[in-house]
TrEMBL record:
<protein>
    <recommendedName>
        <fullName>L-serine deaminase</fullName>
    </recommendedName>
</protein>
<dbReference type="InterPro" id="IPR036052">
    <property type="entry name" value="TrpB-like_PALP_sf"/>
</dbReference>
<dbReference type="GO" id="GO:0009097">
    <property type="term" value="P:isoleucine biosynthetic process"/>
</dbReference>
<comment type="similarity">
    <text>Belongs to the serine/threonine dehydratase family.</text>
</comment>
<keyword id="KW-0663">Pyridoxal phosphate</keyword>
<dbReference type="GO" id="GO:0004794">
    <property type="term" value="F:threonine deaminase activity"/>
</dbReference>
<feature type="domain" description="Tryptophan synthase beta chain-like PALP">
    <location>
        <begin position="40"/>
        <end position="326"/>
    </location>
</feature>
<dbReference type="InterPro" id="IPR050147">
    <property type="entry name" value="Ser/Thr_Dehydratase"/>
</dbReference>
<dbReference type="InterPro" id="IPR001926">
    <property type="entry name" value="TrpB-like_PALP"/>
</dbReference>
<dbReference type="Pfam" id="PF00291">
    <property type="entry name" value="PALP"/>
</dbReference>
<keyword id="KW-0456">Lyase</keyword>
<dbReference type="GO" id="GO:0006565">
    <property type="term" value="P:L-serine catabolic process"/>
</dbReference>
<dbReference type="GO" id="GO:0003941">
    <property type="term" value="F:L-serine ammonia-lyase activity"/>
</dbReference>
<dbReference type="GO" id="GO:0006567">
    <property type="term" value="P:L-threonine catabolic process"/>
</dbReference>
<dbReference type="InterPro" id="IPR044561">
    <property type="entry name" value="ACT_ThrD-II-like"/>
</dbReference>
């Protein structure tokens, strides 16, 4: 009986081979940074206005200012620049749900390289349209990312094209690592870098670059409680499949981390993985818009969210860079994120209260809310399913407050004037101290544990 050749598998990728993981070298990241000059934006790393309130020197690495709105351009550009003439002629293929598709579509067209991008049929409409506007040859096939990738790689081999894995190709990791070089150049005395992690290319590249240039800098990977494949892989020391739930940080939604990324973050270059709850990500999106005047997608906001959630008490008073990896959030998701963020921040309050159904009953409630500076957003009367006399009506009310303290004043006022009421939980302490999973510490000599 002959042993099957793994190269016969349609999904076999010589650059992402589990039997032969590639070790990324800093010299290759440095070469990529020089090679890519003029092809990608050297994004600013600005001090955040919220620094004083958070109790640390926070800098935002604004990767959402790339042309396609995401750091993915770096890996794509580096890979395309390294293709030989035959590979450029035959063209490139990728499978993606969004940001990688946009980056490859834009830069392949700009360099005159044929490209095919496969996206799942349920990919976000806004990202499909954006990839097409950027010049992409988009094909919608597959009900999941796994199915789409299989179709893409099969087509790639049939047409003798070059497959570009968006989160695991060695040249992609090298390109993403240039973010780390820029951070050390822009904030030379940086104490810690917070990096979002999906498939792991950005995390692996940044870890290697930062630890090579400034070994005493701590590097943390950030995932959400619904997208934590790297945490589980490191905990079990194996690239396992993790079933994912729908997430506000869809850019981090990768079921299995990359072969090369996993291999490299195991080399003692990562200090720790941290998992932040998704309601904090929504709050971070809202805060970044209001205080920093920037729009960041969920994957890009998770680094700031982890600080807001109080997951880094060891970084108080330190200089910290949070990588805001992208800004491609569609309007529907943004609207929902703002609503969720305001609710989680105690600024949207929903309650029920039973008032008199006689003339003036609702007017008294509205007057009471107005006098304490509360804005009514919505109000729905319910008469049929109300206990008590027929002259009462239950009002389902959504109001806007200034925050938790203001919301608590509202609760006390309603309790004082009405007998029947029900409020959603508005306890700020509960929000901040809820349990959060933390990944295994990977540093050989953790800086955060040194006195």
């Amino acid at each position: 009986m002959t042993t099957p050749n793994p190269k016969d598998d349609p999904e076999y990728d010589e650059f992402c081979d589990p039997a032969n993981p590639r070790k990324i070298k800093f010299d290759d990241i440095l070469a990529a940074s020089r090679r890519m000059v003029g092809n990608v934006v050297r994004t600013p790393c600005m001090r955040a206005h919220m620094s004083d309130r958070l109790g640390l020197e926070l800098y935002l690495k604004e990767e959402f200012l790339q042309v396609t709105g995401c750091f993915k351009e770096r890996g794509v550009v580096n890979t395309l620049l390294l293709l030989n003439e035959e590979q450029k002629k035959n063209g490139v293929v990728a499978a993606s749900t969004g940001n990688h598709a946009c980056a490859l579509s834009y830069h392949a067209r700009r360099m005159g390289i044929p490209s095919m991008v496969f996206m799942p049929v349920h990919a976000p409409i806004t990202k499909i349209n954006k990839a097409e506007r950027l010049g992409g040859n988009i094909t919608l096939q597959g009900n999941s990312m796994a199915e789409t990738k299989l179709i893409a790689m099969t087509t790639c081999k049939e047409k003798k094209m070059y497959y570009v894995n968006g989160y695991d190709h060695p040249n992609v990791i090298e390109g993403q690592g240039t973010v780390g070089i820029e951070i050390v150049e822009q904030v030379p005395n940086v104490d810690a870098v917070l990096c979002p992690c999906g498939g792991g290319s950005l995390l692996a590249g940044v870890c290697l670059a930062v630890k090579t240039l400034k070994p005493d800098t701590e590097v943390y990977g950030i995932e959400t409680d619904k997208t934590h494949s790297m945490v589980e892989a490191l905990r079990k020391n194996a690239r396992i499949f993790v079933a994912l739930e729908p997430s506000i940080a869809d850019g981090l939604a990768v079921n299995t981390v990359g072969v090369n990324t996993f291999h490299n973050v195991q080399q003692g270059i990562l200090d720790k993985m941290v998992v932040v709850r998704e309601d904090w990500v929504a709050r971070a999106i809202t805060t970044l818009i209001e205080e920093e005047k920037v729009v960041v997608e969920g994957a890009g906001a998770c680094t700031v969210a982890s600080i807001m959630a109080g997951l880094f008490p060891n970084l108080k008073g330190k200089r910290v860079v949070a990588i805001c990896s992208g800004g491609n959030i569609d309007s529907t998701t943004l609207t929902r994120a703002l609503e969720r963020g305001m609710a989680a921040d105690g600024r949207l309050v929903k309650f029920k209260v039973t008032v008199s159904d006689r003339p003036g009953g609702l007017a008294d409630l509205c007057s009471m809310l107005a006098n304490m500076g509360v804005t009514m957003r919505d109000c729905v009367p319910e008469r049929a399913w109300v206990k008590g006399d027929v002259f009462s009506v239950q009002m389902k009310v959504i109001v806007e407050t200034r925050g938790f303290d203001h919301a608590r004043q509202l609760v006390e006022l309603i309790k004082k004037h009405y007998k029947e009421y029900y409020f959603q939980e508005t306890n700020e302490k509960t929000e901040k101290t809820a349990g959060v999973k933390r990944g295994p510490c990977l540093a050989p000599n953790p800086v955060c544990m040194q006195k």
